[in-house]
Amino acid sequence: MKLTECIELYIDMKHKNGHPYVHSAARLRRFAIKTGDIHLAAVTIQHVLEFIEAPGASPITQQFKYGLLRNFFMYCKGRYAMGPIPMPPKPPEPLPSSFAPRVCSRAEIRMLLRATGPAQADPQCAISARTFRTFLLFSYATGALLSEVQWMLLKDVDLKRKRVTIRNCSFDRVRTIPIGPDLNKALTLYVDFHKRQNGSKTEPLFLGKNGRALNWRSIQITFSRVRKIAGLSASDVANPPRMRDLRTAFVVHRLSAWSKHEVDVRGMVPALAAYMGLVGLSSTERYLRLTPERFRRQLSLLSPKRGRRRWSDNADLMKFLAQL
């Protein structure tokens, strides 16, 4: 069987099992293009190495490509009488991230949201003010990754139940989370605007003026303009906010609010991790140094110091989450 055919069958299987499988499918197809439509048995370790170690590929990208191809070849081996899988030694683990985000204040979040109107007043702007304001608000109010927000679908928004479904296309994870009344109201207004402009059959939730899903370059250019008008650019502040800092602001603001109202932070942090799509409790440790000192000790007691324990392994926590 040819490599291209095997890849398409594998992608089809993923889709039938309910996985988004967008970015991973694109990478597998690029592997087929780079390698050529050869027979599956003719794929060599050198083919795999050339794809994994492509110029400019970061250690994290190399790790991802390695796991992607290994899973694909294991699937093929069990179904198409494939010989030994052509996998080289695993790439070295990437160095730990320095993780030094900026924590935006609530006032700065409001400044950014207000600036979307003036920033997008020019008819030549690729994204409407309403669309970009809702994009920023959704990112901040849910703590979702920017790529997750970018690829939201219209059908992922359940306004009646006040829920949204978020798909992580890189890791094929899907989660449905509740949203607050303010975000639900903003989404209601935006969905009405979206349908008037583009019809109800258009799949992407956030569209540019051309009726297509937002591309990353347009998002970055628009945010830079919004940040400048808000007075938060590099010429105005020493450490200007980035779009990814909205996720950090979400975490720190939630933790601060719980502490202020004397909520059991120890019990809520695992729920917060699940809400954000974090697999392990240890993933929350990187936020500890950004949180107020008055409840940092509580979080330290919760986060595991060794191993990669998963929040889903905690029976008491799972019972707690089921009651949310």
Give an overview of the whole structure.
Strands 1-2-3 form a 3-stranded antiparallel beta sheet. It is globular. Helix 5 crosses helix 9 and helix 6 packs across helix 10. With 324 residues, the chain is mainly alpha-helical. The chain is built from 13 helices and 3 strands; from the N terminus they run αααααααβββαααααα. It has helices at 3-16, 23-35, 45-52, 59-79, 106-119, 129-142, 146-150, 181-198, 216-229, 245-260, 265-276, 296-302, 315-322; strands at 157-158, 163-168, 173-178. It has 3 domains: 3-79; 106-242, Intergrase catalytic core (hpI Integrase, Chain A, Orthogonal Bundle); 264-322, no CATH class. The model is unreliable at 292-308 and 316-324 (pLDDT under 50).
**DSSP helix fraction:** 40-55%
**CATH fold topology of the largest domain:** hpI Integrase, Chain A
**How many strands, what sense, and barrel or not for the largest sheet?**
3 strands, antiparallel
Q: How many domains comprise the coordinates? A: 3
Total strands: the figure is 3
Instruction: Give me the strand/helix succession.
Output: HHHHHHHEEEHHHHHH
- Judging from the principal axes of the Cα atoms, what is the shape? globular
